[in-house]
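User: I'm putting together a small comparison set for a docking exercise, and I want a reference complex before I start. The sequence is below, and the ligand is zinc ion. Could you produce the 3D structure with the ligand included, as structure tokens?
Assistant: Of course. I'll restate your input first, then give the structure tokens for the complex.
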Amino acid sequence: MPVIEQTGTEEVHPDVALVEASRNGDTAAFEKLVRQYDRQIFRTAQHITQNREDAEDITQDVFMKAYNKLEQFQGNSKFSTWLTRIAVNESLMRLRKRKTSRTVSMDQDVQTDEGSIPRDFADWTPDPEQQYGTSELGDILQRTIAGLSPGFRTVFTLRDIENLSTEETAQALGLSVPAVKSRLLRARLQLRERLSRYMKRNDGRVKP
Amino acid sequence: MTCTDFLARMTDYFDGEVEPELLAEIKAHLCECHHCEVLVDTTRQTIRVYRDHQVYELTDEVRERTVTRIMSACTGKH
Ligand SMILES: [Zn+2]
């Protein structure tokens, strides 16, 4: 059984002990890990696939695969990052299956800069929650992020919604740090541009 | 600093990863360039609004069903 490497004085992440216990057949320890990350894995899967049923299936598959592959977890990334990488790969695979006519990959549509050059420079309403109800705002957010290509959606989801660090996002996506940074910039700009039409101030006030 | 220069550094600026000297240049640009100022504000708002409104959540019912399925598949191995 591979021993998880610990580097120097760094604090040991509590997941490490749970992973070790799970490897030794302690299913309660594994259930703790499942309950710790199932929501995050589900959200990531749904953001990428844009399909709730797929995301539910993927969440199950990710943890089952992870359990069978626990021996392969080396501990050079966080356990949650390792799980996320499995989730991203499963999600992209689902997308490919659904959209047979189009290839789907992390690289899709990221070669063109169109749509990421800022054009709309209007101020936004400071309080979109007030302007739209929670459910309408939820619809707007969902529709808007769905318009991004999977590669951009995924980077934005991991880095900005799930709050992974740039390095963790790079590990989860199998990309370099500079590639993550450049995709993140374009994803944020595209999303901002698309949201702008809903968020512009409509009280006629123009900032000097 | 031009708007293009700023855009190239915006991600590092958001992450707090710019050297003090460059940071001063960025701040000077944002003071004099309304476009980039709005760009920063609205991009931050974009991130915030998505963080505050998780659009996809696992319902308790689906969650319990999912965990049960995962655990029964895993315990079956032992
Ligand atoms: Zn500017």
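Chain B touches chain A at residues 7, 10-12, 15, 34-35, 38-39, 41-43, 45-47, 49-58, 62-63, 66-67, 69-71, 73-75, 77-78 (CB under 8 Å). Chain B has four helices and no strands.
User: Thanks, that's exactly what I needed.
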